[in-house]
Design a protein that fits this description.
Length: 179
């Protein structure tokens, strides 16, 4: 199932990005710790509580944007559809790749290859809507599949629990030099 694949790829990639960028990890921990400290996040987080964690949502969407990639074939449903300036006839098979949309600088900014969760928080409503539409992997993986919506919420819960209960950090061992 595409939705489960997208959530799994996001989960695996999330810790890669957070451990490479300590400042994002620190900010996410701060959001979680603050929410827990003021009582708006339970020891075992509830879904409605998780939806209030805006930085968590931004980090997960940015991770999905950079890490989940797929192709899909669709058939044009009606005559006269225009795609990239070309008229497409009904039942024409179109293939698209989410990577193209996820790295569109007009939608996501000139730094599309950078992991920057703030882009999701700093955008005005119109820009955020374009970004949401451009995050095809989220729309096709999560929004279109009720089961995947449950997986997405459980992903949020697991990430929060890991960051609440464990000391997640990147340590680098210095290997002895060979003589």
């Amino acid at each position: 199932m595409l939705g489960a694949h997208g959530a799994a790829a996001t989960f695996v990639s999330l810790f890669y990005f957070l451990l490479r960028h300590q400042d994002f990890l620190d900010r996410l921990r701060f959001e979680i710790d603050t929410s827990f400290g003021i009582g708006s996040l339970s020891d075992i987080p509830r879904w409605r509580e998780l939806n209030r964690l805006s930085y968590l949502d931004a980090v997960l969407k940015e991770t999905m944007r950079l890490s989940v990639d797929f192709e899909e074939e669709i058939k044009a449903a009606v005559d006269g559809v225009t795609v990239a300036g070309f008229s497409v006839r009904k039942n024409t098979t179109l293939t698209w790749n989410s990577h193209v949309l996820h790295f569109d600088s007009e939608t996501f900014g000139n730094d599309v290859h950078s992991f920057r969760p703030e882009r999701w928080l700093m955008a005005d409503a119109q820009q955020r809507s374009r970004m949401e539409q451009g995050l095809v992997s989220f729309n096709r993986c999560v929004r279109d599949h009720p089961e995947a919506q449950v997986v997405w919420m459980e992903l949020k819960k697991v990430v929060v629990l890991i960051l609440m209960k464990f000391n997640v950090s990147c340590t680098r061992e210095i290997l002895p030099a060979h003589h």
